[in-house]
Write a structure and sequence with these properties.
With 427 residues, the chain is α/β, with parallel strands linked by helices. Helix content is 45%, strand content 15%. The strands form four sheets. A six-stranded parallel β-sheet has the order 3-2-1-4-7-8, sandwiched between helices. Strands 13-12-11-14-15-16 form a six-stranded parallel β-sheet. The termini are far apart. The structure holds uridine-5'-diphosphate-xylopyranose. Uridine-5'-diphosphate-xylopyranose is lined by residues 148-152, 205, 208, 212, 246-248, 250, 252-255, 257-258, 317-318.
Length: 427
């Protein structure tokens, strides 16, 4: 099948690479010429495990082509994926990239194609998209919605092994074609209206943060009652109706999706005169986790961090990505600097991105170098390599043996035995 993918961001690149690997001929059109040039040479604009190999392989087999020109991508494509960004400002979704992309597609559409909206868009906008398309093309087309649920850092795996494939269309031939296109991937299938498909995406990206904020609220109570949130949420998650995932307490959620989509759903609800109180509380709780962590840090540092050297381990918003969008490290660093601390920031891959967002800190890739002479180690993002640190060695390097564990990954007993002062979140 011939496919076109509009937008070489996370969603576009992974979608393109995976379908190319499954035997489709995929042309990716991207307006950023610099990015296209690099991609043609196999250079990926961000860190995503497994993606570079997949792209290199399919560039070579010519199943994957990158171009800046819509006229090279659109004519002849049977399915066209719109994978451009939909940023939000105070919850308001900016659809200008989607509409621009749709206009360019329409101008170059010569024969029937299915336009699939993968970008996260407000429910019900497909009719607007159709209208826009008709203004610029005489060719026949259908518009469907197939939302994307991939996680950064696991994007390739998630696209090959989705939990579900949601197909938003009411037309038989469209549904048939899209089911056929996805036959190479496992997972449940759900066929529904485009509006439902779009709302499934928002509801999912709002429900998972709700679980996280709930776990974080329980963590605060655990500290009060002398319980351990890891044990509590393990017990809670054993109930299949609740599920064990996304109950990890700590510094809260960041990234390019959860904060944006929660804000967007609150805003969309407000436009429909519904006050989405649960989600407002989810947002508030997530912000409060930073205060809680800072309070814990100050407490463990003897009530004062002024003039102290504090080392943040993990800057990316989560492990296995270089993405710094809404990373908790930005807020933690800023708060500590405002309290007069000297911040050292450590991450295996996110430093180029982090340097643009965290000012006045010193950056390190090696945690042991960063920890020399430090007054506290603050675990903010749980990269695999931080889980297996040599704490006996660290004890000798640090000025004061303090560990504040923002993701609850360390063994308290072990650290205390080594002579560390340890604090997690809710344990
Ligand atoms: C998320 C969704 O998982 C994905 O389905 C959707 O398509 C895009 O948004 P992503 O943002 O890549 O994916 O990361 P995810 O692994 O979901 O983590 C999001 C944030 O939640 C991270 O900051 C992570 O640290 C935090 N988190 C996750 C917790 O604080 N606790 C948890 O138990 C799980």
């Amino acid at each position: 099948m011939n496919l076109a993918v509009v937008g070489a961001g996370y969603v576009g690149l992974v979608t393109a690479a995976v379908f190319a690997e499954m035997g489709c001929r995929v042309t990716v059109v991207e307006i950023n010429g610099e990015r296209v040039k690099k991609l043609q040479e196999g250079e990926i604009p961000f860190y995503e495990p497994g993606l570079d190999g997949l792209i290199a392989k399919n560039l070579q087999s010519k199943n994957l082509i990158f171009t800046q020109n819509y006229d090279k991508a659109i004519p002849g494509a049977e399915v066209i994926f719109i994978c451009v960004g939909t940023p939000t400002k105070n919850g308001r979704v900016d659809l200008s990239f989607v509409y621009e992309a749709v206009k360019s597609v329409a101008r170059n559409l010569k024969s029937y194609a299915i336009l699939v909206i993968k970008s996260t868009v407000p429910p019900g906008i497909n009719s607007k998209i159709e209208k826009k398309m008709r203004r610029f093309t005489r060719a026949e087309f259908d518009v469907a919605s197939v939302p994307e649920f991939l996680r950064e850092g696991k994007a390739v795996w998630d696209t090959f092994h989705p939990y579900r494939v949601v197909i938003g269309s009411v037309k038989k031939k469209v549904i048939h074609k899209l089911l056929q296109l996805h036959r190479g991937v496992p997972g449940k299938r759900l066929v529904c209206t485009p509006a439902s498909a779009q709302l499934i995406k928002y509801a999912s990206n709002a429900f998972l943060p709700t679980k996280i904020s709930f776990a974080n609220s329980i963590a605060v109570l655990c500290d009060e009652f002398g319980a351990d949130v890891e044990e509590v949420m393990k017990g809670v998650g054993m109930d299949k109706r609740i599920g064990a995932e996304f109950l990890g307490a700590g510094l809260g959620y960041g990234g390019s999706c959860f904060p944006k989509d929660v804000a967007a759903l609150i805003h969309l609800a407000k436009r429909s005169k519904y006050n989405f109180e649960i989600l407002k509380a989810v947002e508030k709780t997530n912000k409060k986790q930073i205060d809680y962590f800072i309070g814990r840090t100050v407490g463990l540092c003897g009530g004062e961090v002024k003039g102290k050297v504090l080392v943040i381990l993990g800057l990316a918003f989560k492990p296995d990505t270089s993405d710094m969008r809404e990373a908790r490290s930005i807020y933690v660093a800023e708060r500590l600097q405002n309290l007069g601390a000297e911040v050292r920031a450590c991450d295996p891959v996110a430093i180029p991105e982090a340097e643009k967002l965290i000012k006045g800190a010193r950056f390190f890739t090696d945690p042991y170098t960063a920890l020399r002479g430090a007054d506290a180690l603050l675990l903010v993002t749980e990269w695999g390599e931080y889980k297996t640190l040599d704490f006996a060695r660290i004890k000798k390097l640090m000025k004061a043996p303090v560990v504040v564990d923002g993701r609850n990954i360390y063994n308290r007993k072990q650290l205390v035995r080594l002579g560390f002062k340890y604090g997690g979140v809710g344990r």
